[in-house]
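Input (structure):
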């Protein structure tokens, strides 16, 4: 029995039952341990939760860091960042669902430790949008609002994404990127063509 096995089981149980609805007995059962034996590996549900939150943020941040190192125009970098983000999320559905849905379950002292990691990831997205504004590729009056909207769209994907669905994470990211970069309003030329 490895710690990774326990963390994967905890992520699944937290995703299915919610942090407050899950018990250490549920997690122990998921890894075929007695509850008392589980306490030899971890001290509490909170310990598991904070480790899962850290793990999810590290995965997302590592992917974002690789994208930010690329020397491509900001619009292409944004598309790559969206692909990376959704790939990480959909490849780690249990862990990322815990990140998005259960972070408020942390006690105040652990929540305070978690916030800088989350803010660091958000700052990378802000830096990417700012890079596009500075280079003239983007026109954005409120970068924090743009990032909140973008992450809201990406994060909500885990509530409806299905691994056997008709679109891959990359295809979903590309569609979102096109909507984000180009909007959904028809251009004047396209409207005129459609009216003829």
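Output (sequence):
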């Amino acid at each position: 029995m490895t710690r990774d096995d326990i963390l994967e089981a905890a992520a699944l149980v937290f995703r299915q039952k919610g942090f407050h609805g899950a018990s250490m007995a549920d997690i122990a059962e998921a890894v075929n341990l007695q509850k008392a034996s589980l306490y030899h590996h971890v001290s509490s549900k909170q310990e598991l939760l904070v480790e899962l939150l850290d793990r999810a943020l590290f995965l997302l941040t590592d992917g974002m860091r690789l994208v930010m190192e690329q020397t491509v125009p900001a619009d292409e970098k944004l598309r790559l960042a969206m692909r990376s983000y959704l790939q990480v999320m959909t490849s780690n559905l249990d862990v990322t669902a815990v990140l998005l849905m259960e972070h408020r379950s942390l006690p105040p002292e652990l929540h305070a430790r978690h916030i800088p990691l989350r803010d660091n990831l958000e700052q990378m997205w802000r830096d990417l949008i700012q890079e596009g504004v500075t280079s003239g590729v983007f026109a954005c009056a409120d970068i924090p609002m743009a990032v909140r909207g973008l992450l809201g769209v990406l994060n909500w994907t885990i509530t409806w994404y299905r691994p056997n669905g008709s679109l891959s994470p990359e295809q979903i990211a590309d569609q979102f990127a096109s909507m984000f970069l180009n909007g959904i309003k028809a251009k004047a030329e396209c409207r005129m063509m459609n009216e003829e």
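Notes: The chain has ten helices and no strands. The domain at 1-43 is CATH 1.10.10.60 (Arc Repressor Mutant, subunit A).
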